[in-house]
Amino acid sequence: MSDQTAAGADPQPAAEAAGADAGSPAPEVVAATPEIARMVAEVTAEVESGRRAGAYPASLLAALDTPFHPDEGLEPPEASAVVVSARPLRSTRPVVGGLTVFGKRAVRRLLSWYVAPIARDQTRFNLAILRELRALEERVARLEGPSPPSALEAPEPEGPQPPGR
Question: What phi and psi, each to the nearest 5 degrees, are found at residue 154?
Answer without folding.
Answer: -85, 135
